[in-house]
Specification:
six-stranded parallel sheet, 2 domains, single chain, alpha/beta, about 400 residues, eight-stranded mixed sheet, globular
C-alpha cells in the first residue's frame, strides 16, 4: 500500500514539534507499506528552516519519503501572513502531489484546513480513497481565541470544513471530544485514532542529570512546560504562577519551546524580575526524553475556552510516558484521562494561583509526585501506547484500500 500524506506542519523525528505522523509513517513502513509525505520546508513550531529545506528534495527513511513544497516563510509575523503561508503550501503541494505515482490512499490533515482541499482534489483526480484527519477543530479554535476575525475568511473556512467532512471517505479524529462536532457538520464515517506516546522513547527512572547540569538545575525542583509558545497556550498564566512562587527559591519554572509569543513572554518575565523562570529553545523529539527526565513535574495548559475542553494535547501523553506528574490547566476530556490515571493535579484554566499551589504541593510531597508519575506511565502503556494506536491506524487504512 502506498499512502500519500499532505501535511504542512509535519515534523520529522529529528526536528522540534509534534512527531505523531513521522512515528506513524515509520510504523507503516515497517509493516511493508510505502509512505510519501508532502511537507513544508519551514518548521511550524520555530518558523525557521525544516531539517530538509530543499522544496523537492526527498528525505528517505526506509520506505518513508518526505517531499518539501514551497511555503511562504512568514508563519510568526501575523495571522494574515500565516494565511498566505497556508495558501502557498496548498497550491505548491498540489502540483508536487500530481507527480507522485501509484498512490492507493491520500491522507489529509487539519490544521491548517486549506491543505485538506489539496488532499481531496488529489484523491479525486487519482481516484483513490480520501482520509481526512482532524487534529484541532479549525476554524472553531481560531475564532474562539480571536485570531480569525475576518467575516469572509470565517465564512469560507466554515464552508470548507463542512465540505471536507462531507466528502471524506472517512474522517479520523485524535480526541473523543471531536466526534460530535464533526458528525454534526456532515461527517459520514468517523474513526478515533487518539493521540498517545511511545513509552520506549522515555525512561521514567531517568533523573535527567545531564539536562540538569547543562542548565544549572541540579538543586532545583523543576516544573517544566514543553511545547508551542502561542496565543492559545496561555503561558502568561505560568509567569503569573512564577510570581507566587518567588518566595520558594527551590522551585524553578522551565519553558522549553518556541512560538510567536516567546519574545513577549521573555520581556514580561524580565520586567517582573522572574529569576525563577528559565526559557530554553525547542529540541528535536529524540532529545525530549532527556528534557522531561530533567523535570520533576510537567505543565499543560490552554486558554480557558469551552472549545479546548475537546482536546487531547500530545504533550500530556509525553509527560505520562516520561513518568512525570502533570499539572493540568485544561478541562474536559483530557482531565478525564488525568483523573482516571491518577497522574497529576488539575487546576482551573487561567488560575495562576491554583497552578502555583499545585506546583508547591508536588514540590513539598515529592514521593507522592513520583507515585503519580509512575501511575501515569502505567496508564499510558495500557491505554495510549502509540504502537497499539498505530495498529488501529493500519487496520483503518487497510479497510479503506481493500485492493491495495
Amino acid at each position: 500500500m502506498h499512502i500519500l500524506l499532505i501535511h504542512q506542519a509535519f515534523a520529522a523525528i529529528d526536528e522540534p514539534g509534534g512527531t505523531r505522523h513521522h512515528e506513524f509513517a515509520r510504523f507503516l513502513a515497517s509493516r511493508g507499506n510505502r509512505v510519501t509525505v508532502i511537507a513544508s520546508p519551514i518548521n511550524y513550531l520555530t518558523g525557521g528552516a525544516a531539517h530538509f529545506s530543499n522544496s523537492e528534495s526527498g528525505q528517505h527513511d526506509e520506505k518513508v519519503t518526505i517531499l518539501r513544497a514551497y511555503t511562504y516563510q512568514a508563519l510568526h509575523k501575523s495571522f494574515v501572513h500565516r494565511v498566505f503561508s497556508f495558501f502557498s503550501f496548498m497550491v505548491s503541494s498540489f502540483f508536487i502531489g500530481l507527480r507522485v505515482k501509484n498512490v492507493d490512499l491520500i491522507w489529509g490533515t487539519s490544521p491548517p484546513i486549506f491543505q485538506g482541499w489539496t488532499a481531496w482534489m488529489l484523491a479525486r483526480m487519482k481516484r483513490v480513497p480520501f482520509l481526512f484527519e482532524v487534529r484541532d477543530l479549525w476554524p472553531e479554535f481560531a475564532i474562539a481565541v480571536g485570531v480569525l476575525k475576518n467575516p469572509t475568511l470565517i465564512k469560507m473556512s466554515l464552508w470548507l470544513e463542512r465540505f471536507l467532512y462531507q466528502h471524506a471517505d472517512k474522517v479520523m479524529v485524535n480526541s473523543p471530544g471531536f466526534v460530535k462536532h464533526v458528525k454534526n457538520r456532515g461527517a459520514r464515517s468517523v474513526e478515533l485514532i487518539p493521540n498517545g506516546a511511545d513509552p520506549e522513547m522515555f525512561d521514567p527512572l531517568d533523573r535527567g542529570d545531564d539536562f540538569r547540569r547543562k542548565h544549572q538545575l541540579e538543586k532545583s525542583y523543576v516544573a517544566l512546560y514543553a511545547g508551542a509558545h502561542g496565543i492559545s497556550n496561555d503561558l502568561t498564566v505560568i509567569l503569573d504562577a512564577a510570581r507566587f512562587l518567588k518566595g520558594k527559591p527551590g522551585i524553578r519554572i522551565v519553558l522549553l519551546g518556541d512560538g510567536k509569543e516567546k519574545g513577549s513572554l521573555q520581556k514580561q518575565a524580565a520586567t517582573l524580575e522572574l529569576t525563577n523562570v528559565l526559557f530554553l529553545p525547542p529540541v528535536p523529539k529524540y532529545e525530549m526524553a532527556s528534557a522531561l527526565a530533567g523535570s520533576d513535574a510537567c505543565i499543560a495548559l490552554l486558554k480557558p475556552l469551552d472549545a479546548y475542553r475537546t482536546t487531547y494535547p500530545n504533550k500530556v501523553f509525553d509527560y505520562m510516558a516520561a513518568g512525570r506528574p502533570v499539572v493540568l490547566a485544561i478541562d474536559g476530556v483530557i482531565r478525564e484521562v488525568l483523573e482516571a490515571a491518577g497522574c497529576g493535579i488539575f487546576c482551573q484554566p487561567g488560575d495562576s494561583k491554583s497552578m502555583a499551589d499545585a506546583i508547591t504541593m508536588l514540590a513539598e510531597n515529592r514521593d507522592r509526585g513520583r507515585a503519580m508519575g509512575l501511575a501515569g506511565r502505567r496508564y499510558l502503556e495500557e491505554h495510549f501506547n502509540r504502537a497499539e494506536i498505530a495498529e488501529s491506524l493500519l487496520k483503518l487504512l487497510l479497510e479503506m484500500t481493500p485492493k491495495a
